[in-house]
Amino acid sequence: MKMKNILKYILILGLVFNTVSCDDDPDNAIYTVLDYEKGAVLRTIEVINASLNSSDPTSTFAVTVEEQDELDGGLMESVDIYVSLRDLTSDNGTSDPNRSLVKTVPASDFTEGPVGLPRATLTATFGEAISAMGITDSEYTAGDVFIFELVLNLTDGRSLGPESSSGVLTGVFFKAPFQYNALLTCSPEPGDYTVRMFDSYGDGWQTDCGNGGSGITIVLDSTTLEVGLCSPYGGCNSGAFLDESQGDCTPNDGYEGVATVTIPEGTVSAEWNFPGDNYGEIRFEVYAPNGDLVYDSGDFGEQASGLLPITVCAQ
Questions:
Q1: How many domains does the chain have?
Q2: What is the per-residue pLDDT across 191-209, written as a single tens digit (0 to 9) for each?
Q3: β-strand 270-274 against 40-49: which pairing, if any?
Q4: Cα 287 to chain center, whole Å?
Q5: Where a domain ends, among 168, 185, 202?
Q6: Using one digit for the tens of pLDDT, what is the confidence trace for 79-121?
Q7: In this structure, is residue 24 part of a structural domain?
Q8: Rg (CA), the chain
Q9: How high is the mean pLDDT of the chain?
Q10: Which end of the chain is flanked by fewer CB atoms within 10 Å, N or C?
Q11: How far out from the chain centre does Cα 296 lie?
Q12: pTM flag (> 0.85)
């Protein structure tokens, strides 16, 4: 039985369940996810790129989506891609342009996916986004966020967007938020960056597991570097972090250590990622080649896992 038919039967079952269970809580999640009044969804298959480089007008936000409706894609007419700016940097003032249309992707640009439903990779370049919003380089800077919204237009005249997406539709299977954030980055200033790392317990870092874990990763174009405080424990990462300048574990006394990250001339992008803090004992600071403090993780245990907004733009 094809997956799309299984999904259709699940939807129909939801309608039957809704009919015979009128006394149940109307806010129950099953009513929300299987409500045909919603009409259709754009399910996220893969977010291919969730950042834009302000130094490169061709850098591209990209997401692959799958359209699902009552007629297995037969209701889809087109998808609109909108963009807006969330200004998270105050150095150049505050700018929040209105939501602007970047492009419209017709249903004919979708192709049949592995479960018989239409799929497409939707894209928008940095150049297209700023042109749509009509903004200049004085109104944005690295560290801001571009918000891309998808609006699904149906042949019966309805349009569905982020306001149509319930908590259930953003869950594990459906993953249909209709909205995505893209961090604005830039080509980094080349040189030696200093990473000062601290552990309040004095036994090095245990990040995403209790036996050492991963270090801070710095993705330079196609090269990945990793730094962290050595841990006396073995396990998921054998307690060893590579420091590009040392060729070995970052020297430390359990409480503090310093690593050097060298960004070569001509590097297009640099993404810094922190894996987490298993015991709430970690903090760190990052200094630019000129010695300026460009990132402070805050008090011990404060830094959440994920992408770090470290942006030192090349002049």
A1: 2
A2: 999 999 999 998 888 888 8
A3: unpaired
A4: 24
A5: 185
A6: 999 999 998 876 666 666 779 999 999 999 999 999 999 999 9
A7: no
A8: 23
A9: 80
A10: C
A11: 21
A12: no
